[in-house]
Amino acid sequence: MEAQATATVKEALAALYHHPDDSIRTAADRWLQEFQHTLDAWQVADSLLHDESSNLEILIFCSQTLRSKVQRDFEELPSGAFRSLQDSLYVLLKKFNKGPPKVRTQICIAIAALAVHVPVEDWGAGGIVNWLSDEMKAHPEFITGFLELLIVLPQETSSYKIAARPERRRQFESDLSASANVAISLLTACMGIDQLKEQVLEGFSSWLRFCHGISASELASHSLVHMALSSLNSDQFLEAAVNVTSELIHVTVSHGSGTTAEQMPLIQILVSHIMGLKEQLKDPSKDEEDVKAIARLYADMGESYVDLIAKGSDDSIQIVNALLEVTSHLEFDIYSMTFNFWHRLKRNLIRRESYVSYGSEAAIEAERNRRLQIFRPKFETLVSLVSSRVEYPEDYHTFSEEDRRDFRHVRYAVSDVLLDATDVLGGDLTLTVLSTKLAQAYGSCNNEQNPKWQPVEAALFCIQAIAKSVSIEEREILPQVMALLPCLPHHEQLLQTVCSTIGSFSKWIDAAPAELSILPPLVDVLNKGMSTSEDTAAAASMAFKYICEDCRRKFSGSLDGLFQIYHIAISGVGGYKVSSEDSLHLVEALSVVITTLPPESARTALELICQPVINPLQELIQQGDQVLQQVPARQLTVHIDRLSSIFSNVKHPEVVAEAVYRYWPTLKSIFDHRAWDTRTMESVCRSCKFAVRTCGRAMAMTIGAMLEEIQTLYQQHKQSCFLYLSSEVIKIFGSDPSCAEYLTSLIQILFSHTVQLLRTIQDFTARPDIADDCYLLASRCIRYCPNLFVPTEMFQRLIDCAMAGITIQHREACKSILSFLSDVFDLPNSSDGGNYREFINTIVLQRGATLTRIMIAALTGALPSGRLEEVSYVLLSLSRAFGENMLNWARESINLIPPQALTDAERLRFLNIISDAASGSSLHTVTDRFGEISDVCRRNKTVQDLVQSALRPHDLTFTVVPQQLS
């Protein structure tokens, strides 16, 4: 059998690497991946690695296979197999001591994974590090392989590819900490071998986080530290030396490392050597990767010692100046490394917690002002440096989409830095710095020989980025900026930023003195933006929305002009290049202005804004049923979405309610003839949802007809948006006694047809939107009209239905189901929920054992680990509501899990978590503790499958299996 499998592996690898047919290569790859999960893979991989005739392709595949088997599937081996596996891996490590390096690395990782799995005593006295020390001394000819294993050991402690239990992983970390001095001694002994210097540095970097027992003063004088720091000036070893130095920095600030004073001997020597690299940052002959490494070191130093730097000593300012040097570099990958430092420094300077040790409020304020005064010039320099990094390149028009995305990323990053600077400088002072840039740029823009728009655009981009930080009382610079905007050339990118700038300062424009007459020329600029290109139109439309939101009262006397802009944009004629998506900004803009009008004026204005939207829909309806059914959804939704925006933003409930009543026949025609069309139904339901949300109970004259329509159409077409619209109706009208009859009928019909669709997990998976919106609606019913819902048979059926669908993989649907269940369990303890306690108890007690089993299955692998908090909350709610019963149900379920997956101690721990949840543990605590059990049950695919096979989450007719059969 083994010989046949070995031959097949060789054939599959040959096909994978050399067969000309893609389908054959794909099939070979699939077979090899499946083979790696088999028991045969252990013996075949081991055998081929020992086989002298194996080529490199075979060796690489088999070393990766053996490594992954040790990491993931170690528990497949018999209990006594450790020693033979250890011996085999040791032979292989010596065999591949001189290469190939890829194979040797995989063998080292496999040995490290083996060490994580097994107790320290299995390696002999002192564990794997002492074993390795003995081997290195006894067989120095294999030093290369042994040293790589020494490097890999600490790295693998954080590898979650290794399917070890959490307590075993913690014990391994503890074992390594206890062996750190031995490891450091081994590395020190290898220092003198030149060809091993890089590996020694790499090993020292790996082990530093386990060196808890070595004091800062010891490290400061340690030969390995001096070797690393001296290697910072070596091109050959720079990268490795930077890694060590960076780890040393982290050691000095890590939790439990002691006070700053205790760490100061090491901090001083580190800072001194790092500051000595400053000239290399400017050396044009230096390789860019080396410059990046040095920049990373400066960034690490700045971020780690920011609390010391923020005190503002002369030495601190030297560090800040060095970081400004890094920020002045032209490459984004280099200068952006400092951005997190500036953010942390800003936080330290402005937050009160940084000054609590100064005692009184007066002393705190005095110290805060002293530090801000010291650092403001540095942040002014920072603003000046980064503001020039956002200029459009001359060849931007040739950029690929990926390059353009990268450029936008640079701009976003610079915007964040500018906002950090405004927190230190204040928005007005930052604006002053940027206005100087704008003035210089405007001069170059008017240069007749070589006019350049890019510097002006860059300065404006930075100014609009800090708009929210500039006070609305600012009167020196912004009036000049706003007066300048209409005078700038209408280059596309520049005009786009001009429009965005106008929108960003909408609140300032509203507060500006009337005598400045700022608004009319700016509206003209926005008009120009809407007719230049789609990109400028998008920026202009958004700016128009902001202007109308914040300056709405200034527009109330000039509605004619606004309506003209609106009608041109909506109609698509007149030269505007506003897309249908961006036109929604204009709809919203006019809607918020209408909100400022008195009701009578608002009625007239609302009619005017709705007509260009309603008329095209009515024209389509008038062409007959056949046309309405065949027209593309887009021709309907473009208008309906505008109606949604109107209903959402005109805050006149009675006026909007009248409009809804008036336009209901149009909406009903669309409902009736397009109910099969998901896209149109989602659009029209969204429009109705916003109408209900805005109008509230003022919409009573239409709500009955709307509910009747929903009920009828849902029975025929099962569109999930009908459920979502119903959720909004329940929220608004659920507690209205006059609507009880309507709502009872709605609940009964919608849920009765939904539960027929969702009988099995396969049904849920096929209809996740229905499941999501159904349980959102059910939760709304519990919160807003439990009296119409909870005492009904439909409530019980929905709980049964939820149990079938708990393990749906669709994230939103799953969350809605889990939220519904926790709402059910929490209801009896709510202020008005006591009336339902007996009813809910009866339902849950009948289903508790099965429900608990499914929830434990969800926790242990049936649902993704990202759903852990939601699952934990359901278990917490169930525990609090059903105490001892829940503990019994949990015990039954947990006892079904085979001992290969959970030990007796782990079962007991699992039950204790549930017991503690019932007695008042917080969600955070319960989630963390459940997380460990979840990791144990998911530690590899074999264990996870074993657990799920025992719990059978989809088997709702499950009966408890006797303990001896599990």
Automatic annotation (TrEMBL):
One of its GO terms (biological process) is protein import into nucleus. Gene3D superfamilies: Leucine-rich Repeat Variant. The keyword GTP-binding does not apply. GO terms for cellular component: nucleus. Residues 100-244 form the Exportin-1/Importin-beta-like domain. It is found in: Nucleus. Keywords: Nucleus, Protein transport, Transport. Belongs to the importin beta family. This is Exportin-1/Importin-beta-like domain-containing protein. It comes from Urochloa decumbens.
